[in-house]
Design a protein that fits this description.
Elements (H helix, E strand, L loop, with lengths): L1 E10 L3 H10 L5 E5 L7 E8 L2 E10 L4 H4 L2 E10 H16 L5 E2 L1 H9 L8 E2 L1 H11 L14 H5 L5 E7 L3 H23 L1
Parallel strand pairs: 6-7
Antiparallel strand pairs: 1-2, 1-5, 2-3, 3-4, 5-8
């Protein structure tokens, strides 16, 4: 049975994000993974406290909070096998259950700037975490060290299709339309089967 996984790239417009953007010159500088179209369960490495970017680690992100509410985003979808789905869920669940052991990899961000592989135990920045989860689950492979993978690199994975680009707040309208489309298609399929 096939399942979907979602890659969420965002630009929250915070000072920290704008500093990263000055260097990367890319539209999106934060990456997260979700297991559902509605972004109810979104995981990444980022701020543990909305007001302080320097206290970071593994986070289950809330798309309704002030940090994301007005963010620009790009959402990608990838169809994966049930085995891959189970692997990525187990990988993230393992980290979530031991999140106190994990920290944000600030030093790794400097490694990206200098194009130097810096591997730290139990430390990730957002795109490094997403890349690791995808690689561990045999969903994607990378031609560079995972400590150098950026959100832009993630957007270029061939198996992920762009499904939405715009304000995260506008994504709810997209979700409603997708749900209505699936309901209509399902209803139509049931009618033709009679």
């Amino acid at each position: 049975m096939e399942k979907q996984i979602y890659l969420l790239l965002t630009d929250t417009g915070t000072i920290f994000t704008r500093m990263i953007k000055l260097y990367t010159k890319k539209s999106y500088n934060h990456a997260s993974l979700s297991f559902d179209l509605f972004l109810n369960d979104v995981y990444s490495f980022g701020r543990k406290n909305i007001k302080n970017p320097f206290i970071g680690g593994f986070v289950k992100e809330d798309m309704e909070n002030d940090l994301f509410r007005y963010a620009n985003c790009a959402i990608y979808c990838c169809t994966i096998s049930e085995e891959q789905w189970n692997r990525v869920k187990a990988y993230i669940l393992q980290i979530e259950q031991q999140k106190y052991r994990y920290k944000y990899n600030f030093i790794g961000l400097f490694g990206v700037m200098l194009n130097r592989h810096i591997q730290r135990e139990n430390a990730f920045f957002c795109s490094q975490f997403v890349a690791t989860a995808l690689k561990e689950s045999i969903i994607a492979d990378f031609h560079k060290p995972l400590s150098l993978v950026t959100p832009h690199d993630l957007s270029r994975i061939a198996s992920f299709d762009l499904i939405f680009k715009g304000k995260l707040a506008d994504y709810k309208n997209y979700q409603v339309k997708e749900k209505e489309k699936k309901t209509f298609t399902s209803s139509f399929s049931n009618m033709t089967a009679i």
